[in-house]
């Protein structure tokens, strides 16, 4: 279908695709500057926070790190961790503070460049724009292994994005697959509710909640870790593929220790491998996964120790972590779902990106967009909110302001016909911010 056949084409200087914290942040800068723009949101502003988080979900980073443009956290618990409803309230407050031009319930089906303009076909018709910001994050399609198709029909299976609470699952034991942040926190949620949990462990690292008198996030902030650009990271852009460290902000914040859970009755396995009949099979190496997760946590403590010593900071000493449980040498590698009364499986193995609707040759062989700090080689096309787009905070409440401000400068420069680098000629609004 040609764009002309879809009726009137609505034009804006800038169109933002996605109404989460990323899209709203760049909208804030554009509105402050009086730039004509529109935010297209497939569902409702902040949809993922409202509808893809479980009931006890809370931030794993302290509230003081929440710093959306012109709207820092103003609550009375800066060192606490906002719960799901509080996060939504914070985001709604940000929206109310500047009233962005948002059109909700609009799905973008195709984006391409033609005759010097960006063209969009959407569920409510056609649009065009001089510049486009794709702010849909990097978590699009829930990953569920093909083996899931062979699960018995009477066993409920859901992705982590669909999990609500223990009561939403049928009575019986639960298999949780994956130990990233979601997997560990959902396993804990079920465990604390008295459910018998079987957990397929992976190679996700962990981090301590506190060390030597401060939250580890506060130490890392003082160490300027959150200012480290991706190109200076020891792993380079490879860090974008790494699983986040597991920890929790629940009940004021604490470590997540899978060894402690095992002592209390949670059954740990290696990585999920296959399903044959009613038997799930797992790889070995539980001890190795736990040891490596602990080693990462301890290495972070080492870096904090060095920082404290180098800067002459007075801080209490703290004994190092001692493993409270070791897996037996004959750790089970098979789970008979029927014999173990498994009633539900929660897949916590992440998401994959889907930018197939963007018809522009900027993607690598894995479908990841080529960009420098969100600026692509295609004139006027930007990405915002990707994990480690520039720093650890990219896409998070802590770092999205910096990324949005940077893209605003590029948008402004292109609008003005500027050819110089925005790093050397920052906009007045950027300087003021």
How many β-strand stretches? Answer: 22
**How many independent structural domains?**
2
Mean pLDDT: 93
**C-alpha geometry:** globular
- How many helices does DSSP assign? 9
Protein name: Flavoprotein involved in K+ transport
Keywords: Oxidoreductase
InterPro entries: Auxin_biosynth/cation_transpt (IPR050982), CHP04046_FMN-dependent (IPR024000), FAD/NAD-bd_sf (IPR036188)
Pfam family, one: Pyr_redox_3
Write the layout of secondary structure elements.
Layout: E1 9-17, H1 21-32, E2 37-41, H2 47-51, E3 67-68, E4 71-72, H3 84-98, E5 102-104, E6 108-114, E7 117-122, E8 125-134, E9 141-142, E10 156-159, E11 173-177, H4 181-192, E12 197-200, E13 210-211, E14 214-215, H5 216-222, H6 258-263, E15 267-269, E16 272-276, E17 279-282, H7 286-310, E18 334-336, E19 342-347, E20 351-352, E21 358-359, E22 381-383, H8 400-416, H9 428-432
Parallel strand pairs: 1-2, 1-8, 2-5, 6-21, 8-22, 10-19, 11-12, 11-19, 12-15
Antiparallel strand pairs: 3-4, 6-7, 7-8, 9-20, 13-14, 16-17, 17-18
Write up this protein:
- With 433 residues, the protein is α/β, with parallel strands linked by helices.
- The chain folds into 2 domains: 218 residues, FAD/NAD(P)-binding domain (3-Layer(bba) Sandwich); 208 residues, FAD/NAD(P)-binding domain (3-Layer(bba) Sandwich), CATH 3.50.50.
- The strands form 6 sheets. Strands 1, 2, 5, 6, 7, 8, 21 and 22 form an 8-stranded mixed sheet that branches. A 5-stranded parallel sheet has the order 10-19-11-12-15.
- A hairpin with a 2-residue loop joins β6 and β7.
